[in-house]
Amino acid sequence: MPMRRALNFWVAGGDLRQVKLAQCLQEDGHKVETFAMEHRPDPALLPGSDTLRGMEHADCVILPLPVTVGNGILNAPLSDLRLPAEELLKGLSSGQIVCAGRVTAEMRVLAEQKGLIIRDYFDREELAVANAVPTAEGAIQIAMEELPTTLYGQRVLVIGFGRLGKILAHRLHGLGAKVTVSARSYGDLAWIEAYGYQAEHTGQLTGWLSPYDLIINTVPARVLDYPQLIDLKEGCLVIDLSSRPGGVNQKAAAQLGVKVIWALSLPGKVAPASAGVILRDTVYHILQELEL
After folding, report:
1. How confident is the model at residue 1, as a pLDDT?
2. Tell me: the pLDDT tens digits for 99-115?
């Protein structure tokens, strides 16, 4: 749902997702300024600033996902600037709204001290569900490029039946793969069987992995260690979609000759335009809840 009135947005840092986000906001009639994006494609299409002057007057400041890299530096891959994210917050005014992804505890403390209203859009359910679609499609794209066969008729294991696991299972089934899904909850296992998939318990995979041609992990915990990886047949491809530190023992996989692709942040890589639209919609939801 679009905003009812034009607002003043600053979009600082980020990748092509934030570029698309800024473009969407501008197309919706808002005033938009970008910062730390000087190497963005088609720079003439978006206004950009090389200083933070004026950001203190923005109705909403949007920071990237994740908001920082390394030692608290603003995540700005499209810029040569290396600015501590806390320095950016220090220049803002009390009462300003800041939307960011994966906000650190240090940033939250500083925001509270400054009287800022900070919201982590990465915690939003609607963003997580929407992002699961490009993530699933990106994983399937990787599988199609890496496997010497079609997915049709192949035995595929999806580990985890959360938002992403559900969408992945449905997409893979639609392509004709023989889909098995693992979960820990007996409620989830019941749903897996109700959907017509084979079910496995995630905690009991050892000794049962040899039939699979493709395994896709969605669980943000170590689920494929040496005892599981040693069972895989030659040529089995493993795609790990979990966040750091990952769900696969990479060292063990290398020793065993198992090909593992750790595919992080797929929405921003395979579908940045769609990811930018998802970010815009989520920011709008946050602002509407704040009655802006």
Report:
1. 60
2. 999 999 999 999 999 99
Residues paired with residue 216 on neighbouring β-strands, in sequence order: 158, 239
The answer to whether the beta carbons of residues 194 and 210 sit under 8 Å apart is: no
Residue 290 CB partners (closer than 8 Å, separation 6+): 97, 117, 119
Whole-angstrom distance, CA of residue 179 vs CA of residue 172: 7
Q: What pTM was estimated for this model as a whole?
A: 0.85
Specify burial of residue 175 (Cβ count, 10 A radius: 0-12, 13-18, 19+).
Answer: middle
Structure tokens at 272: 């940045």
Closest by CA position to 78, among listed 26, 11, 31, 32? 11
In the predicted model, residues of the chain with pLDDT beneath 70 are 1-2
Smallest Cα–Cα separation from 272: which of 123, 77, 98? 77
CA-based nearest residue to 31, from 13, 12, 52, 47: 47
Of 133, 169, 172, 175, residue with least CA distance to 183: 169
- Rounded CA separation 10/6 (Å): 13
pLDDT for the residue 244: 84
Whether cis (ω within 30° of 0) applies to the bond prior to 245 is yes
